[in-house]
Design brief:
9 helices, alpha/beta, five-stranded mixed sheet
Length: about 300
């Protein structure tokens, strides 16, 4: 008899290409996941995975079984969610990925209240600034700052995100305040290393302008960029959600250079086969309401 838990274990291993990682995602021991895989292969009478000490590969039979198995697992989860929703509650696992700094500053507090309101949800939140693959890394949803171009995903807009060019008063006193976009190339810049110096993009008179400052610091974390700017190390181009408190305390100053910094949008993205998920729908609406329109962090001069 085919067991759903064994099918779920196969799907998790096929997506993670690792029994250890699949066990971590399912919050099970490696031995339990291995036993479920072996049981499934015995039931089907087919080898689904090639296992070596270094890697796992899906067999031809495994590939044929995978897509249907994935739908079975998802439809079972959706069926459970429908019953829970009919009873006025949401329940079951929910795995989300989000950028580190935004997750710590804003997403986390919003999710704490979401979980308090929906105690039946078992949330796993992975904070990671690397680009995660929504479909192969096993996430139910990801929060992205910027465009989502993944195939076979549904994208929902959460909130706009303005960016501002800022500097500490101490830096401006020592090096002067830039008055135009052209002035910026003469200043020290704190640059987000994942995007590089060309990340400094502005719109002036309907024209796009890219500036490449002298990068005194390249770093892959927005909070470190913000703190380096507060310390007077250089200019930084940062989303409002990083700096609105520092601006209110006059630790940073917004610079007017005759052009508006290119902004972005915060999105929630999820696989197409999660389209019917009551948990995803509830999460999307919750985050939109928690962030506001315009979002509370955009209250910036």
């Amino acid at each position: 008899m085919l067991k759903l838990e064994s099918v779920a274990a196969f799907v998790a291993v096929a997506e993670a290409r690792s029994i250890s990682e699949a066990a971590r995602r399912m919050e099970l021991s490696k031995s339990v996941v291995s036993e479920r895989l072996a049981e499934l292969e015995r039931t089907l009478g087919a080898k689904l995975l090639h296992r070596t000490t270094r890697k796992i590969a899906i067999t031809e039979d495994g590939s044929a079984f995978y897509e249907r198995a994935k739908r079975i697992v998802q439809e079972a989860a959706d069926a459970v969610a429908v019953i829970a929703e009919r009873r006025g509650r949401l329940a079951g696992p929910l795995r989300i990925s989000a950028p580190v700094s935004f997750g710590a500053l804003h997403l986390g507090p919003a999710l704490y209240r979401f979980l308090a309101h929906n105690p039946g949800i078992e949330l796993t939140l992975d904070l990671d600034d690397r680009f995660v693959n929504l479909l192969t890394d096993g996430y139910d949803a990801v929060v992205r700052h910027g465009p989502v171009v993944d195939e076979h995903v549904v994208v929902k807009r959460l909130a706009p995100s303005r960016r501002f060019l800022v500097a500490a008063p101490a830096y401006l006193e020592q090096f002067g305040e830039p008055k135009s976009v052209a002035d910026l190339e003469q200043h020290k810049g704190i640059v987000f290393s994942h995007r590089g110096a060309a990340d400094w993009r502005f719109k002036a008179a309907r024209q796009a302008v890219t500036v490449r400052p002298h990068a005194v610091l390249r770093v892959n974390n927005g909070l470190v960029m913000r703190d380096a700017a507060v310390a007077g190390l250089g200019l930084a181009l940062l989303p409002a959600y990083f700096i609105y408190e520092q601006l209110a305390r006059a630790e940073l100053t917004v610079l007017e250079v005759g052009a508006e910094a290119e902004g972005a949008t915060l999105y929630l993205a999820y696989p197409e086969d999660h389209r019917g998920s009551a948990k995803i729908r509830a999460l999307t609406e919750w985050l939109r309401n928690a962030f506001g329109n315009p979002p509370y962090w955009n209250v910036v001069p």
